[in-house]
Design brief:
This protein is an alpha/beta fold. It is built from nine helices and seven strands.
């Protein structure tokens, strides 16, 4: 019975952001749980590379800022598999210090660019809204599930001291990241009650920081703020996602599952 509770055998899962650091690990874990995974990403080549290592997966390019692109993704999934059992809204912009989008960190709130703010809202929040809209008819048919991937910064404000001392330079965690991740929690609650009576479940997976080649000094500072005294490994969130999508979570909707090493307990 326990095996059946956690099984995702033959369930079709649409995963956005499937070529990213965590997305590729979600795709592999879903496949190991015998789900059929639609690996969707703005980087279609990256999605194809992920599916080379994932049995039964289907890669597709998608721009979650574009409703037509999302509709094409949903239609392609239905043509390929005939149904959709779950949607994982994982696509997001999360700028990292010393990365391609590091310029976001050098602005204080008072000078933060409207263009950067608008882009994050379009991807992180509106993208999830559009994906849920497009997938809704198929999810109603399958009594399926939506998981919105959020962050501890959707629950609590970022400790800007961690970022202001990174590399000896001034910086901040951008405001758009916190706002969009908080918005996903609100979207989850709205959709959970909107789909009441249909069997469709909607939950939020709230993640803490994950190791991704940050400066050693940042990792040390972050770890000191965490009861488990470390950042997450990239593969440590997959189990929580599998749980939320499985029948083991059949009585959960409108809920937030926090996996953060205890960060929000302090």
């Amino acid at each position: 019975m326990v095996d059946r509770l956690f099984s995702l055998a033959d369930r079709v899962v649409v995963l956005t952001g499937g070529a990213g650091l965590l997305g590729m690990r979600y795709a592999r874990a879903l496949a190991e749980a015998r789900a059929r995974v639609v690996v969707a990403d703005l980087d279609e080549g990256g999605a194809r590379r992920v599916t080379q290592d994932v049995d039964g997966a289907f890669p597709i390019g998608v721009d979650v800022r574009n409703a037509a692109s999302i509709q094409e993704m949903i239609e392609a999934a239905l043509v390929e598999f005939g149904r959709i059992d779950a949607l994982v809204n994982n696509a997001a912009i999360d700028p990292k210090f010393d990365r391609d989008q590091a310029e976001r960190h050098v602005h204080e709130f008072e000078t933060y660019p409207l263009a950067a703010w608008s882009e994050s809202l379009a991807v992180n929040l509106t993208g999830a809204f559009l994906c849920a809209q497009a997938a809704a008819p198929a999810l109603r048919e399958s009594s399926g599930s939506i998981v919105n991937v959020s962050s501890i910064y959707g629950l609590v404000g970022p400790d800007q001291r961690l970022y202001r001392s990174d590399g000896g330079r001034a910086g901040t965690k951008p405001p758009d990241y916190s706002v969009t991740k908080a918005g996903l929690i609100g979207l989850t609650r709205y959709l959970a009650t909107y789909f009441a009576g249909t069997g469709v479940r909607v939950n939020t997976l709230i993640l803490g920081g994950v190791e991704n080649e940050q400066d050693d000094s940042f990792i040390q500072r972050y770890s000191a703020r965490t009861p488990l005294s470390r950042m997450a490994r990239p593969d440590e969130y997959s189990g929580a996602l599998l749980f939320l999508l499985s029948d083991a979570a059949s009585y959960m909707t409108g809920a937030s599952l926090v996996v953060d090493g205890g960060w929000t307990a302090w």
